[in-house]
Fold these 2 entries.
Entry 1:
Amino acid sequence: MAISPLVLFAIFALVYGNGVLPIEATHHVYRNLESVSSDTTNQPYRTAYHFQPPKNWINGPMRYKGLYHLFYQYNPKGAVWGNIVWAHSVSKDLVNWIPLDPAIYPSQPSDIKGCWSGSATMLPGGKPAILYTGIDPNNHQVQNLAIPKNMSDPFLREWVKSPKNPLMAPTIANNINSSSFRDPTTAWLGKDGYWRVLIGSKIDTKGLAILYKSKNFVNWVQAKQPLHSAEGTGMWECPDFYPVLNKSPLTIGLDTSVNGDDVRHVLKVSLDDTKHDHYLIGTYDSAMDIFIPDKGFQNSQSVLRYDYGKYYASKTIFDDGKNRRVLLGWVNESSSVADDVKKGWSGIHTIPRAIWLDKSGKQLVQWPVVEIESLRVDPVNWPTRVVKGGELLPVTGVTAAQADVEISFKVEKFEEAEILEQWVDPQILCGRKGAAAKGGLGPFGLLAFASQGLQEYTAVFFRIFRYQHKNLVLMCSDQSRSSLNKDNDMTSYGTFLDVDPAHESLPLRSLIDHSVVESFGGEGKACITARVYPTLAINDKALLYVFNNGTSEVKITRLSAWSMKKAKIN
Ligand SMILES: *[C@@H]1O[C@H](CO)[C@@H](O)[C@H](O)[C@H]1NC(C)=O
Ligand SMILES: *[C@@H]1O[C@H](CO)[C@@H](O)[C@H](O)[C@H]1NC(C)=O
Ligand SMILES: *[C@@H]1O[C@H](CO)[C@@H](O)[C@H](O)[C@H]1NC(C)=O
Ligand SMILES: *[C@@H]1O[C@H](CO)[C@@H](O)[C@H](O)[C@H]1NC(C)=O
């Protein structure tokens, strides 16, 4: 059974009603949950600057009194399903994290079998409130409320639950399936004074975002219709619904309750059936309380994704400190379950990404938060140079297993671009035409985690096709040679990139961290995250190259690479 791993806390400052949140007084602290043993932390695949728990957990953020809070789903009983708690870490900079005791754990009938995912909302007066899914004694999914015990504590160590929990429950009357009713979003406040929240659900194979409304955050009433739904998409997990600014400066983030001119809305859902995070851009009709996407799920092939690699159950928060919207996602392992058990941990987070609307209005753009650049040391910069067809150029002077690389290509001659006769799913195309398949214009890009004799490498590259009289840019992350250990999932990932190479350069950034390669094409128009476990290219045995396996030459207009320091994580 899938559970939604991210628990998010958003920040916005509004009105917390006076005494409208009755709370439960008792609080027991679960100890014994942080069992870091040295053999789980001292391994070639442990990441150095990606958030990663000692073992078996996953999570999401919030900001309160200048601190970012990350709540992650954790099972204290390890392999046994159940008793999921909200573990908790805090950070000043989204880079270094301090562990705290779990924030929410089973203590009421409404969550006795687990505290699953949810979101935080900042109520008026700057008071946070968490809505989360609890599992009741009948294994029904219900929605609960918790608020901080001591608002003066910036660490928000203790949380108390409403005695009125559950606040939202499946009934025969409301026709909600009790095993498909989870992951409340951050709530938003309408002009009519009602709070609104979405809960992920499905009816048969129709995915839906059920809408609830409340005046006081305690008494919630289901709206007559969902905010949005789509046939054939299956269960919607971890919905996220937020406004983005549609005028310059586009990078400014908006509080979740903002609507009006110059605002578009984004609905993201994590599809349980495919394990992908898809998003739609559209208009939120606040009078009808419906979301009208510009392009819906009907043509599932073209529905956008945050990340075309290993990535799920993400959530955003509005960061009022830096006026940006920040996206955090969970990255699953690609190793076998047996290897995960051996490693003793599984799952990491991506580097938090700022997210905003592209100037085309047709898609979102993501970029690693600027704070991660504080870990950069020993820069390597190349002058402009040409890479001929078949050339392989080593990038020396960086710790290649723990690095941040930015490269930009410019293509001047397009004659040798391969012809694409008909549209092909880009992931399939990347599988067929990997780095080792010689081309015309590309593949060119980076080889990360390369071993000395190139028995292993993870290739991130572009390949330009001629399709319907236009240049079509394919971006791939090719894992097919990432490891000699064939127990790993080595699927190649890819997407088409909305960049016109005749007029624009082709920038690529990869964050490389021991077992993860997070890549950003076209300055964040396409993101691909890969988990890889090389056997030879580990630690100081890992090498980094620029390669061109096409016949046509391309120009490197920029290469900047840095070794990355280790972050302090838990
Ligand atoms: C609340 O938190 C503040 C700041 O950490 C602390 O000084 C105070 O003692 C706490 N109050 C209670 C009742 O725990
Ligand atoms: C409720 O959802 C569960 C889990 O997806 C499914 O097995 C079951 O058939 C559903 N029940 C109904 C009545 O749709
Ligand atoms: C996690 O990865 C495993 C192994 O690659 C895969 O079978 C599973 O479906 C993935 N789960 C999610 C939620 O992505
Ligand atoms: C380039 O293509 C050749 C021929 O297909 C292949 O043998 C070689 O491994 C490729 N290089 C890379 C870096 O994949």
Note: The mean pLDDT is 89.
Entry 2:
Amino acid sequence: MELLALLFLSFCFLTLSGRTFAAESETPVARVTVREDDDVILPCSLDTNENIESMLFDWVKEVPRKEVFMYRNRSHYNNGLPGQDVEFKGRVSHYPEELKYGNASIRLKQTRLEDKGTYTCIFPEIKPSEKIFRIELVVEGRLKVRNVPGAAPHPSVTNLDQTNDWALLKCDVKGAYPKPTVEWWDSNNQTIPFEEPQVSKKGEHFYITLKTTVKKTGRYRCVATQKEIHHQIYKEINVHLNGAGPKPYVTILKENGLLECEVPGASPKPTVEWWDSDNKTLPSKTVQDEEQQGRFHVIVQTTVTEPGCYRCVATQMEKWHRISSEICVHREKTAQPPSGLPEWAAALIGGFIVVVFVVAVGVVLKIKGYSLKKDLQRMENGPSSELERNLTSEQP
Ligand SMILES: *[C@@H]1O[C@H](CO)[C@@H](O)[C@H](O)[C@H]1NC(C)=O
């Protein structure tokens, strides 16, 4: 019974696969490749070379079925015959001079990505049975900008936002097909980290936006690559970061209230001031004001007498940029004159106390352990030695 079922199944399989092979071999598919926007000839020719001027042939695009070009005894879609799909209106022509030789090839103007697919050229009236030719059209996309007047066909890059320390860069690739890989590279052509790309699709075209934050002055490049068509294109952008550090560095130099503020590498030159908690400028001394490669390294000191919080404020007027760091001087610290115990002495004494304690504990444990051992020994040895004594005493 099972054998029968198996036989039946394999019979079905053979029949089905035989059918598929047959269908495929009936109409071999020729492949034609074209670059998007280029014109292409879809070939179709009777090998008998018979004159087809007064015959009927029809070009159809498959799935979904669309009327591409029909020719019937000298009338066709370009001279009044109705029925052509709007998609192909004005874009398809045939070769009247070639008809005499059985050549029904057509020319498709300015191919679009949407044109890709399978086309059939049918001669329904040919005896003994209709003749069918199948063409697979492959349209290779170009990387390009669409519907953006005046835009160049490469990525566009913009500096969205910038501070002294970083710049946020954006790259837009518009209307590309096939889908490109988009990356940000540094000037050494190394990929730098970037955000998750935003990808959208209109028709067959991809729109990709890629952002990155850079923290160094330099030249950056947005690169779009389409491996399939061996195409790579880029756009560069220069970034000038001329920053102060994220904030001025502030330190208490001396416990008696000498405060120091350091602004490393700022451009344009910042004004650096010490302010008290009422935003009043304190008298201060610039101890360093150096320029290196167009950046200013400034150190400003002030002496405060009162405990409280003080701010070092770095201002770049030209850039409307102001940044500050705060530091607080505590009463205990300022009240602690050098006459107090020096830190190293306190550390030494502290260390000494710890050592003494550890030694003491060790000694106590050792003594305890020793006496315990002694007790145990006495308990073990006690009776035996007494027995010994007894034994010896019993000996005459
Ligand atoms: C049919 O005509 C086209 C256009 O002139 C030509 O490119 C093609 O080679 C012709 N085909 C044959 C088989 O002659």
Note: The two ends are 111 Å apart (CA to CA).
